[in-house]
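User: I'm putting together notes for a lab meeting next week and I want to include a structural view of one of the chains we've been expressing. I don't have a solved structure, so I'd like a prediction I can at least talk through. The sequence is below, exactly as it appears in our construct file.
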Amino acid sequence: MKKVTLLCFSTLLTCVSIYSQSNDYQKNKEKKLKEGSVFTKIINRELPAEIVYEDADIISFIPNREQAPVHLLIVPKKPIPTINDIEEKDALLLGKMFLIAKKLAKEYGISESGYRLSMNINEDAGQSVFHLHMHLLGGKKLGPMVDQN
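Assistant: Thanks for the context. Below is the predicted structure for the 149-residue chain, given as structure tokens.
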């Protein structure tokens, strides 16, 4: 029985290390979390942004690096680092983000032709700002989300 338990534990540790964040990414993430996000600075008007929507809970603006003819970021004002950090009490806030995405897609003329909503969570998805945010992308054919190998 001890050998089976040891084998299971060893396998679990291997899987965790394969699917965890790299040390460099973890250090960078910790540093950015301590400094506060660029989005919090935009919300507090410490940094400029072209704001396209704002209410008490959410702000939306055009990012510095646009990746499509229409590219907006939809950001809750509550600083939540990743989807992994949401709680049940955040359900209405997350739902509101989708309703605002729908509204903005219509305002920007892409609701019928199509658009993509994307959230990047941690290293493998390329998250670089640790303040939950949704990308609204459209205005052209966007292609597959990942390589179709």
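A couple of points you could mention at the meeting. Confidence is low (pLDDT under 50) at residues 5-17. DSSP finds five helices and five strands in the chain.

User: Perfect, that's what I needed.
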